Amino acid sequence: LAFNTFGRIFTFTTWGESHGPAVGVVIDGVPSNFLLDLDFIREELERRRPGKQGTSPRKETDLFEVLSGLHEGKTLGTPICFVVKNKDRKSGDYDTVSHIYRPGHADFTWHRKFHHVDHRGGGRSSARETVGRVIAGAVAKLFLRTKGISIGSKILHIGDQLVTDENSPEKLALQAKHENDSVGGMIEIRAEKVPPGLGEPVYDRLDARIASALMGINAVKSVEIGSGIASASMKGTQHNDPLSSDGFTSNNAGGILGGISNGMPILTRIALKPTPSISQEQNSINHLGQPAKVTVKGRHDPCVALRAGVIAEAMLACVLLDFFLLNKMRRW
Amino acid sequence: LAFNTFGRIFTFTTWGESHGPAVGVVIDGVPSNFLLDLDFIREELERRRPGKQGTSPRKETDLFEVLSGLHEGKTLGTPICFVVKNKDRKSGDYDTVSHIYRPGHADFTWHRKFHHVDHRGGGRSSARETVGRVIAGAVAKLFLRTKGISIGSKILHIGDQLVTDENSPEKLALQAKHENDSVGGMIEIRAEKVPPGLGEPVYDRLDARIASALMGINAVKSVEIGSGIASASMKGTQHNDPLSSDGFTSNNAGGILGGISNGMPILTRIALKPTPSISQEQNSINHLGQPAKVTVKGRHDPCVALRAGVIAEAMLACVLLDFFLLNKMRRW
Amino acid sequence: LAFNTFGRIFTFTTWGESHGPAVGVVIDGVPSNFLLDLDFIREELERRRPGKQGTSPRKETDLFEVLSGLHEGKTLGTPICFVVKNKDRKSGDYDTVSHIYRPGHADFTWHRKFHHVDHRGGGRSSARETVGRVIAGAVAKLFLRTKGISIGSKILHIGDQLVTDENSPEKLALQAKHENDSVGGMIEIRAEKVPPGLGEPVYDRLDARIASALMGINAVKSVEIGSGIASASMKGTQHNDPLSSDGFTSNNAGGILGGISNGMPILTRIALKPTPSISQEQNSINHLGQPAKVTVKGRHDPCVALRAGVIAEAMLACVLLDFFLLNKMRRW
Amino acid sequence: LAFNTFGRIFTFTTWGESHGPAVGVVIDGVPSNFLLDLDFIREELERRRPGKQGTSPRKETDLFEVLSGLHEGKTLGTPICFVVKNKDRKSGDYDTVSHIYRPGHADFTWHRKFHHVDHRGGGRSSARETVGRVIAGAVAKLFLRTKGISIGSKILHIGDQLVTDENSPEKLALQAKHENDSVGGMIEIRAEKVPPGLGEPVYDRLDARIASALMGINAVKSVEIGSGIASASMKGTQHNDPLSSDGFTSNNAGGILGGISNGMPILTRIALKPTPSISQEQNSINHLGQPAKVTVKGRHDPCVALRAGVIAEAMLACVLLDFFLLNKMRRW
């Protein structure tokens, strides 16, 4: 029931505020004697790093230290603790807004729940926290890779514009930034070569856990599996995936039937809302309930979808590894 | 980690196969000394009962027995066990298809996971299991009601047709049945007067848990919160909900910010795929992998959305009550 | 976090009050396709049944019904629900004491926690609840048996008298009964052929979980592993178990080192307090805090140790099966 | 199910090997806005620090850094991460024995479970890990103190010698050291002013959780509650604690009835085995199963009981705080 722990067997616990000294993650339930490719983990972190075009100019070098769980590069079977220092803290940027709730942000709800006014405290709701998820996801991917399972993602559209060769996600996001606005986006995440049998009905189903993992990412407002929202408009004759001796001949199910993987690719999509931080004046109230105008300064992504792909992949990887381990116990 | 247990503090465990002697639910974590209105639970069960127009003609009287946890009508604080007998079993209907995987069904994945060929065994993936969810949800609603929280749902569209005064969901569903087909649907679920502060970031967020609860219902293929999938196409200036001294002036967030309720109505939508059982011949394989044709006989809803509303409400009620109890611990 | 659920992978949930209509258990996490020997379960229930010499004269026939989870005698991998009706309820016996706290009983604490005055409600603290434990334990034993693991127990002493060929436990217990008194006892439980490697340090250790499982049995006031309490008085040269090429040459560790099984027999002992129900007048108070005398009528075991062996074995079996399943995940 | 996480609501997760760069703890479920007295935490760490007379000469300065969860000294309600560097690593001391199993140590079982030969890897089973427990326990004590609950411990005997004014624990432990031996000990832990009602029957009972928490401490081989092992030899007339209008007039129950606190002091005792590391030659085998002699060098406590009191108190404090928070949910 630890609120900052994700997973059941392969678990990870993140800690750290964006404006504190460091963020980190403790990964537990890791099989022992596995040689961990730390370079791959660094590459994954680089994928989520802001400071690239179209994303927040804040620089995070994201160098990690491993404080436990490895000996001569191999997993011990004990918890692995990664720590990443927060080097580039500029909390001054936030001062002017600190007692006014920023629309679309968690300031209001954190205040109601935890009774802090100063939202530097609420820094857990920052994207900075996802460093730990990406690290855990990279570890999970390394394990899954040895079973042939791979995970990738792509951005389908940014705002109402489809991503194409000419319209890169970065270009589309910058358009919003130039209007002092932000924009949402849609990402597809896909896992290939997932064996059939993963998922534990009826309350720890694969689809339910994926939905939880992805909806729990900041800014995600919908999760679809397979044909997703379109399924509501379909007929049974269209939606049912026929079987041939070569397997399923379509994948409306998105690789999941009855909460269990069916051997087809796992296919899921998430909608991300626009970054709530925008440089335009907005109506709000302060913590005393009085009307106030707020303009959010600081360095912000105009579009969180740009770097959410690696985070969503990470969460999916952790879910799949967890179910892979759980499924071992179903065989006597 | 019990796979058939839902929730963390207010929990319920369902058991029973659709073709076994009974189904039931054990509800735990119930505050004591609460007078339970059993008639309300019966009414909720009646709402999910098939056998009405447009739904499966199978009759389930759904009379329950309470075997524990109540004394003179009041909760003891101990587990409450409800048992509902399966009176109307006709497993004969299933015999012809029993070793051919029915497209869109969980037969294939249950076989791969649990190694049963006879899908009478796999009866946990039947809608019959949801009797327990509806009972637990009714209990949760009774508690929430005393805090002023209410939960309702409505069907937005059936297939590609909007529900209107003229086009009732039942009528639209029957159209599909007359074509020997089935059809999907979209449901909105809404909770009113939810206090701010419910949800436990960063991995037990309210939105993440709702997504899990709803995606875990059979046939659900997408879950949206607030403006949901539309958020991906929006700008920050459109999506951010401004605050005034009277509270939020719009609800794109669907009542949740940073994984915590914000005091606005909780708003969520689910897309349900068409019932996979259709009376037309479909291509499939048998359990030996040989091609086979299958026509699903038996009594089937042409549209699962017709009675999924009460199930979705039940899951949302259980999630909200759970977080309500959890939130008590945040105050020292 | 379900309070009435035991275990992590192989789990069971008990429900039912001693004075309600039935007690039962829902067992989850059971590997599928396992032929379950129901006769063995009946034999185990017979071992815990009161009504034999030296134990409570209350007759419990303990016939169970299986309502789910089995198909043609084999496990489906779904929850197995066992129900045992309460046939021999005589709540009248309890009436005279119902608002006076019985010394040594849970009346006082259940009232303080759950705010019931009538202790018929508190019937979960009755030994009757252990029916479910014995059933779950019998299921676990059947699985463990296929791996060669067996579990047994014996009573070492009753009160201050050693059990011998001449002094059977029943005979010693009857002596106390003849004095209108009750008496405690000490039981040793032993598991043979447990493979090394079971247990998950550092907080889900085998010894910690055994301690929890056994201390959680009514009336147990101490749990020892291996040389137990005597270890405190020993020197390292005495206590350390040397290793030879044939394995350990002694077993002060009781089969557990660092919270992990070492391949030697698991050896544990529990001390049970005397049955608190005695036919002598005792000083107490009523629920208003006023002094009152109480003499407990009804049918009571003079010594709970007589039938606690099978319950303790059951709990140990469930713990071992759980760790056996968990250990499968440690191998990649 | 995170194996290195303890607790249900107030939880802590420890990480770190004794021969790695650091050890640490992440504490979650902490109520927000609580001013944390870090000096008290330092004092508690000082109590467990080795290097005092009669304990291991290894010097651990145990200076911690707080990396998250606090803002201006107050809890944020987010996870608090404490890191303690390992400054005084001398792994050379261990080299000669590294492939021979040390009797009484976890080398053998860690090898069987995790497949490491080099026991530097297995450093989680070291007493060093308890730094995190003491920190979490100190945090819990600070919360409990505001409700008037206090926790203390004393050493009752060392080996077969009672602790007296003349015979301090340190003096008795040194006697064993002079004989190149080690010695066990018995500790009593006591919590005062615990309110009635803590504990969640029937599987999350207060006594069961205490047993788990204490048996999970290295070297503990028995846990007793109240009159403990002596209960087995008692009659009901002796053991039952009578009630008067002033409350219980004796405390054989050790403050717990039916798994729930009864308002009397919680009283528990643990037996600790002698430190397995001794400077005498012992019979063992190496990891290939060949007979070998082993003499354990390095710096070792002759008696782990000397500094186990503060660890046991810490575990008890965490258990009590957890149940205190859980109990809030029982009131509707």
Total DSSP E strands of chain A? 18
Mean pLDDT of chain A: 92
Sheet having the most strands of chain A:
5 strands, antiparallel
The rounded distance between the terminal residues' Cα atoms of chain A is: 28 Å
Strand order of the largest sheet of chain A: 1-2-3-7-4
Count of helical stretches of chain A: 7
User: What overall geometry of chain A do the principal axes of the alpha carbons give?
Assistant: globular
Q: How would you describe the oligomerization state of the chains in this entry?
A: homotetramer
Structural class of chain A: alpha+beta
Strand content of chain A: 15-25%
SSE order of chain A, as H and E? EEEHEEEEHHEEHEHEHEEEEEEEH
Q: Which spans of chain A have pLDDT < 50 for at least 5 consecutive residues?
A: none
Helix share of residues of chain A?
Answer: 25-40%
Largest interface here, residues on each chain?
A-B, 110 and 110 residues
- Rg from alpha-carbon coordinates of chain A: 21 Å
Describe what is shown at a glance.
4 copies of one chain form a homotetramer. Chain A is of the alpha+beta class and 332 residues long.
What does it look like?
Chain A contains 7 helices and 18 strands. Chain A is of the alpha+beta class. In chain A, α1 runs antiparallel to α7 (305-328). The model of chain A has no long low-confidence stretch (mean pLDDT 92). Chain A has a 5-stranded antiparallel β-sheet, covered by helices on one side. In chain A, strands 9-8-10-16-11 form a 5-stranded antiparallel β-sheet. The first copy, chain A, has a two-stranded antiparallel ribbon with strand order 5-6. Helices cover 25% and strands 23% of the residues of chain A. Chains in contact: A-B, A-C, A-D, B-C, B-D, C-D. At the A-B interface, β1, α2, α5, β11 and α6 of A face β1, α2, α5, β11 and α6 of B.
